[in-house]
Specification:
Chain lengths: ~190, ~170
């Protein structure tokens, strides 16, 4: 839903400029466009819907306070997704729930911590694929999830998993290749 | 377009964010490549696991953003503007040096009064005497001078009585 119809077809870059001038409708439209991806990125890191909602709100507050510092050499979505990932990692640190294992080791996926009621209905086939996905190293799993489920670019994926664009690309392709192998093995 | 190029675009293909020309190129490759077609199916399955966003989250964030922006605008108002809002009862601006000036005036007035008492010609200053530890004369709490002879109120004396009293004292 867009409160201000004049913002509906406006590119993010122009909305950012308007928001800098204090235009309330521009801020609302940026929230409308990006709150879902921010929420899901945070949820995949913290694994708790309530914490994810709080962190999503804090993400937008911090982003808009720092809007003057947004240089525009990246897309607004890339910028706010990176803020969201940092916010999510901060939530884990503050909650003392950060896993000691490094991110690139095999671990319980955040997606399994997400309440099934919050998901869309999925078929048995999808459940099977997700079980295989859960066995991937975390960086590979995150890269696959963020690329296939959120449509993030490799640069954005890198921002979230704390790596370069090239490393994000490698993690994605290794993850996909491994999933295909696991699917073939499982018949 | 090779398999690596197509593989990088398959998530966008599945989500539907490729433009028409790119879709045509990918579809042309998929028609000839079973591996990439299988990968597109896998990517499509993965893309169905999207957690739902809580209802009302966007409204909650918008409200928080509006409140935060208002608070920051209030905090950023010019100092002069804030001072103009700090007024005495009827809207008069608070005098900048008012309290300091008043304090100096009170201090100056008090000093003048003390000095005028201590320097009056021909008048013995019991207050100064009281500060001198070598003397036993000191002002008492009722305004009388301790150690001074007790006299009745002289205002009721007639001129004759007063002259007789002076003569008695001098005598």
């Amino acid at each position: 839903m867009t409160n201000d119809p004049s913002c509906a077809a406006v590119p993010d870059e122009e909305l950012v400029e308007r928001a800098r001038r204090g235009e309330r409708g521009a801020l609302d439209e940026l929230v409308e466009r990006h709150h879902a991806v921010v929420y899901r990125v945070v949820l995949r890191i913290v694994g708790d819907p309530d914490l994810a909602a709080d962190a999503s709100q804090d993400t937008f507050l911090k982003a808009f306070r720092a809007l003057d510092g947004f240089r525009g050499d990246a897309r607004f979505r890339t910028w706010i997704v990176s803020i969201a990932a940092n916010e999510a990692r901060g939530v884990l640190r503050r909650a003392g729930r950060r896993r000691e294992r490094p991110l690139d080791t095999v671990s319980e996926p955040a997606s399994t911590a997400v309440d099934h009621a919050t998901r869309v209905a999925v078929t048995d086939e999808v459940e099977h694929v997700l079980r295989l996905l859960a066995t991937l190293p975390e960086k590979q799993r995150m890269a696959v999830q963020l690329r296939t489920q959120e449509g993030l670019s490799f640069r954005e994926v890198g921002e979230v998993i704390g790596s370069s664009e090239g490393a994000a690309r490698v993690n994605y392709f290794h993850g996909i290749r491994r999933l295909r192998e696991l699917l073939e093995e499982s018949g | 377009m090779n398999c690596a190029d197509v593989g990088a675009m398959l998530p966008d293909m599945a989500i539907g964010t490729l433009d028409e020309r790119e879709v045509e190129r990918v579809e042309a490759h998929l028609a000839l490549c079973a591996a990439c077609s299988a990968e597109l199916r896998l990517v499509s399955l993965l893309g169905r696991d999207r957690p739902t966003v809580p209802e009302g989250l966007a409204a909650r964030i918008r409200t928080a953003v509006a409140g935060d922006a208002g608070a920051r605008r209030e905090a950023a108002r010019p100092v002069a503007d804030a001072k103009s809002r700090r007024r005495f009862g009827f809207g008069f601006p608070e005098p900048r040096w008012g309290w300091a000036t008043a304090a100096v005036l009170v201090l100056a007035l008090g000093t003048t009064l003390v000095l005028s008492r201590t320097t009056a010609p021909g008048e013995e200053d019991v207050f100064l005497a009281s500060l001198d530890p070598s003397t036993s004369v000191w002002p008492a709490g009722d305004g009388m001078v301790a150690g001074a002879p007790l006299l009745d109120d002289l205002s009721d004396l007639s001129d004759e009585d007063l002259a007789a009293l002076l003569q008695e004292l001098e005598g």
